[in-house]
Target: YgiQ family radical SAM protein
Amino acid sequence: MTKRHKTAKELFSYPLYWAECYGVSPFLPTTREEMDILGWDSCDVIIVSGDAYVDHPSFGMAVLGRLLESKGYRVGIIDQPDWRNTEDFMRLGRPNLYFGVTAGNMDSLINRYTADLKVRNDDAYTPYGVGGKRPDRAVIVYSQRCKEAFQDVPVMIGGIEASLRRIAQYDYWSDEVRRSVLIDSTADILLYGNAERAMLEVTHQMAMGKNLDELTDIRGTTIVRNTPPGGFTEIDSTRVDWPGKVDQIYSPYEYIPEGKCQTKDDEDSDVMPIRVIPAPLRRGEKLDPEKTYIRLPSFEKVSKDPVLYAHTSRILHLESNPHNARALIQKHGKKEIWVNPPPIPLETPEMDGVFDLPYARVPHPKYKKARIPAYDMIKTSINIMRGCFGGCTFCSITEHEGRVIQSRSHESILNEIEDIKAKVPGFTGHISDLGGPTSNMYTLNCNDDEVQASCRKLSCVYPTICSNLNTDHSPTTELYRKTRAIEGIHTVSIASGLRYDLAVEDPEYVRELVTHHVGGLLKIAPEHSEKDTLSKMMKPGMGTYDRFKRMFDKYSKEAGKKQHLIPYFIAAHPGSSDEDMLNLAVWLKTNDFKPDQVQTFYPSPMSLATAMYHSGKNPLKPVTYKSEDVYTPKDAKQRTVQKGFLRYHDPRNWQDLRNTLIKMGRTDLIGYGLNKLVPAEEKDRQVRQRPQKAKPGQATGASHTSNRPTIEKNAVAEKARRKNHHSGKPAGSRATGEQAAPSQAKRRKSKVKSR
Model:
């Protein structure tokens, strides 16, 4: 590792807290009774989560709880509390250090509402999949309840919901830009991304007697300040319309009270004011990133000016490399939101340590035999890596986990398989996944540490694969072979998303995958077929898909298997016109794809595509009021039609598609034949009126004549029922003999009567 790479304190090097004498608990306690059994009089940290408590490394509360436990802290869990009062938030008593609040593994609003803003009836992270067990905006609600329960206890918020709302963000559900969740929740500190480093550092410092307001420079944290820190250089990026000639500014902002922005390098140094540089002049300056921050447009500005919102989104994403990112600051009224640079990624031994913690690997016993769908899905899957350098604009993984891939060792992964064999009830020998955000970015990173330390690219694979990117899949291929060789393992599936543009760079990997790890169907995500839309997604063109399909078909044939690709596509994505969706539908029909599950674009917080959706601008390029405009279908009818193009084969979509094709002047695609997309209206009416085979007694809406056999059967059944009733037999009993099977003559007689 070169000197240009940032380093961090080794994750497991922190000293043990005094309470380590209590040892490891079978499960982190969720009640006072469980605490009593462990001999605890109090908890040092209490984690409040919107998910049911599953002690598994795929659940954030378990990872952070077990990590803190490994350093000697007593950690309790308040899972899915009743948020309507404070009673549930007091069930473990007052924590000695702080409350840690998370909405859970999913954003609470995405968990609760569909892309069409319809309420979901289920929740995969709840026993029996019951919906409605967590509030909307759970981080805000839980944090405020913790403050009400114990006013003097600090509250730390984190998880994906807090992480993606650390600055002002567009909120799809209210159709407005909202303040940083740190302001709305009244919490004391926000941890973003995978928070192991930040959480251990904050907890250690608090255990040493420091207050949270003293912890201002910990990576991966966001805090509230009254004023910016002194001794820094500020890059002013609050506008996009700088005049042609820009003069350098040397005075502090007028709103900083005198004496508030002062720091001293040592006791004898002079006061060091902030130095302000307008953004257009920053390139000529050699600035120390450790003493530089970027001023974003204020919440008040971005909430009223969508162009400034897109500009702010671009800055945030350009400052995501932990090796060169600078702090960000954004004014909210009289307060300043200060975002420290991202955390340093975990090294392989640290990743191993996190996943080797003593997880029970099952839900808490209090749920008894209740089924938790999310657990059922991942109980035999293994997370082998973190991060994603794909940069897909519609995805928020990068904003949360970062672009640097963090991989586990083979040994750690193989040990986890043995752990699954020993701990997962009813394990049959099937590993359901070896993956993570993607299945095939394991160990792939930049070949040059110095290049990576200075890189600000939004993607390592778009528009083409970077020449500095390692694309060698052999560590993954070797891992697959090792897992299959374990005694008691008969199947290892790969279920995480495959980056086929990377896979084609290593044919041996594709051969291994197709031969041994595809169960007939492999899901991949081209997302679209049209260049303009793909450019707004930062996804490769269909030429790469065709290349992968040829390899997939070749190796499937060599393996003697009949296997198929199942492609995923998105409708109504920013940049996607009706013409683009039409061309995609034609591509689908030409290739004989009839998708059942299709996606409509969902504007998740902080993603680049969400910035496009809200602003109509393209933040993949410098944003100005005259820069590239991005068309986005927002109207509910438009979104429905675009989704209908993906399901061109569904009769329920035909009328809308016909109307759209007529408006587009593409009536040539209406009619009958292989080169048509939807049938003409006359045939549509016939299809809709075609009678369905009826079950006995079931109304079908078919004509009287076509429904006659059902009428006859009903008449016979009713006659038998009445006879049973008069003979004293139960109404539901089965008739026998003549009652169950009337003679042919009686059936003919019944037909005559029915006429």
